[in-house]
Amino acid sequence: FASLAGKTRHELWLELVDLLVGHGAEAEGLDAEAVLRSGLRTTAKEMSGRLYTALADYHVRRGAFSQARDAYVEGIEGARTARDFALVFDAYARYLESMISALMEEEEEGGDDDSLDLLMAVLEDLVASRPVLLNACLLRQNPDNVREWLRRAEMVPAEDAPGVYARAVTTCAPRAPGHNSLWVAFARLYEDSEPKDLPQAREVFRRAVGVEYRTPEDLAAVWCAWVEMEIRAGAGGGRALEVAREAVAQGSACRKSQRCWMLLADLTESLCTLEETKAVYGEMIDHKLATPQVVLNFASVLEEARHYEEAFKAYERGVSAFRPPHSSSIWRAYLGKFVGRYGGRRVERARELFEGALDAAEAPELAELYRWYASFEEEHGLAKNVMTILGSALKVCPAKDKLGVLTAWVAKAKEFYGVARVRQIYQGAIEVEPPEGLGDADVRTVCLRYARLERGLGEIDRARAILRHGSQLANPKERGSGGAGYWEEWNKFEVSHGNEDTFREMLRVKRSVAAFYGQGAASSSAAPAAAGEKPSLPGFVKAETMNQGGGAQENPAAAEEEGNPEDIDIDDDEEEKEKEEKEEVLEAFEIKQKAVPQDVFGSLQPPSVANNKRKDSEKKKPFLGAAERFKRAKTTTTQ
After folding, report:
1. In whole angstroms, what is the distance from residue 234 CA to residue 243 CA?
2. Peptide bond preceding 435: is omega within 30 degrees of 0, i.e. cis?
3. Is the whole-model pTM more than 0.85?
4. Are 175 and 212 in contact (CB under 8 A)?
5. Taking the alpha carbons of 496, 498, 501, 505 in that order, is the dihedral positive or negative?
């Protein structure tokens, strides 16, 4: 059937329900109740709540109140979704409230009290039982909902709980998530009862371990719960040990269960002999079920029994069974116990252990292990080995740990061999490049330390050369303890030990380094802007410029006057740099210039100065007339 108005089957059913409820009594020969019940059987589940409330309303309109209550109860018990349950429950509650209100009005006029009390009791019971009724609805919707089964067992009275659990374990599918928790809670019910019914609880567990669960871990959880119940029951723990051994027996589904094996190891360690404990731990390691913590526990048990060599063998099995980084904790415990036990009595074996630990260690752990190894050699071995170990550590350790290793190496070299060896170490550290060498920041720090060492020894030229070597990694524009701090240190050095020439050389190097870093920054920033353009070389002119009409060939003078726009005025730049450099030198050395009196030079005065003096003296002579000048000339000739 296709509706001409385009209505769906659901919409047509809703219209039919409204017609039957409102006008069902007027239709002759039509059984409205039968139509509504046929809708409950044939329509979708989403309409069940609406159909039940419609059926109850139909009976209310006919005055059949008992049949209306039966329809509401039937709807609550038959609802398959929480939405339908809430719809029918609320409608039933409103119906009872309206009936109670009507009876209360009749009571004032002398009505029946028994009917009123009965309806009030029904309403109170309905409200009180709402959680149980909703739980039943959810279980009808999903019978494998383990959480709702457990909640229902808590809602019902204690005497009804075993029946709920029995129905739950049979209704819920064995492969449903959490099905094992139903069996465990079922057995715990008998264990916590007064008096305790342990035989019945054991029977529940016996049935539970025979179920095929979703995963082996679910079965392991049931076995462990059974063992824990036997431990709580007392009796020396013998029955608990038997259950644990049965759980991991040959052919059991929990043969490879790490949880069951660890529980068995704990029980065996507490209740059995050392040989049985060793056998259990050995099987765990053989079956690859042990964790690093299990290996450490095994070794601890053997150490407590003073079986030290067997404990070391357990460590050996552990480090061979696990790969880094999981074996790191075993290696550290092994080294600590071995060195603490033997000290310097078995140096060669300890060295082998340290080498093995270093081979298996991750990069973040290398620095700590190398320092530990060097400390052991310093205490029980040779100073030469200490230097070799720290030198190897500097090559393989991560960049963030290299400076710390170098500091320790320098300290030991100074203690054992003196300044000459320290110089070699510093020299090698600043020459080797990453990844074996130091990073740029660490090289700057080492150069400063090296220069301070040479300065303390009076080797000023060596210190200056070291500072110059490290300056190529120090950007003067980098603030903080980086480049700027490095140049400030060199500046103080030149002020204290240098002269004007060395200070000028330092400034020249500083400008070169600043230009290098500035050129790199400019190149990186100009690269995106110049995308799609061909690079031009300084000093070259484009071909279009040479071929333009009326160009340089027609007017060479104008071309010469115009010049190349890419030409650099080197003389002006050099003069400005020399001027700035001179000012910095004067400021650094605090030199004040003062004119030297010309009389100091005597006959060594330049001709220009002598002529100036003669002119000055002539300017100071008095004015002479013509007659006086002839008289003096004649007197001079006569003489």
Report:
1. 14
2. yes
3. no
4. yes
5. negative
pLDDT per residue as tens digits for the range 15-73: 777 777 766 666 655 677 777 777 777 665 667 788 888 888 888 888 888 888 988 89
Tokens of 281: 């731990």
Q: Is 8 left (phi over 0), alpha (psi -120 to 50) or beta?
A: beta
Q: Give the angle subtended at the CA of 162 by the CAs of 157 and 166, to the nearest 5°.
A: 135
Please check whether residue 351 is in contact with residue 388, taking contact to mean a CB–CB distance below 8 angstroms. Answer: no
* Single-letter residue type at 70: D
Task: Identify whether the C-beta of residue 88 lies closer than 8 Å to the C-beta of residue 52.
Answer: yes
Q: 604 — phi, psi (to 5°)?
A: -85, 5
Angle at 569 between CA 565 and CA 573, to 5 degrees: 140
| Cα–Cα distance, 421 to 406 (Å, whole number) | 13
User: 156 Cβ partners below 8 Å, 6+ apart?
Assistant: 132, 164
- The answer to whether 124 and 155 have CB atoms below 8 angstroms apart is no
Backbone angles phi, psi at 617, to 5 degrees: -65, -35
What does DSSP assign to residue 600?
A: G
How far is Cα 281 from Cα 269, in angstroms, rounded to an integer? 10
**Closest C-alpha among 338, 332, 330, 295 to residue 314:** 295
Rounded-to-integer distance, Cα 104 and Cα 117, Å? 10
The token duo for 260 is 């069951």
Name the CA dihedral angle for 342, 346, 347, 350, rounded to a multiple of 10 degrees. Answer: -70
Type of residue numbered 635 = T
Q: How far is CA 179 from the centre of its chain?
A: 36
Per-residue pLDDT of 472-495, as tens digits, reads: 999 988 876 678 889 999 999 999
Helix (H, G, I), strand (E, B) or coil at 615: helix
Say how far apart CA 144 and CA 412 lie, in whole Å: 71
**At a CB cut-off of 8 Å and minimum separation 6, what does 48 contact?**
40, 75, 78, 79, 80, 84
Which residues fall within 8 angstroms of residue 413, CB to CB, at 6 or more apart? 387, 421, 422, 425
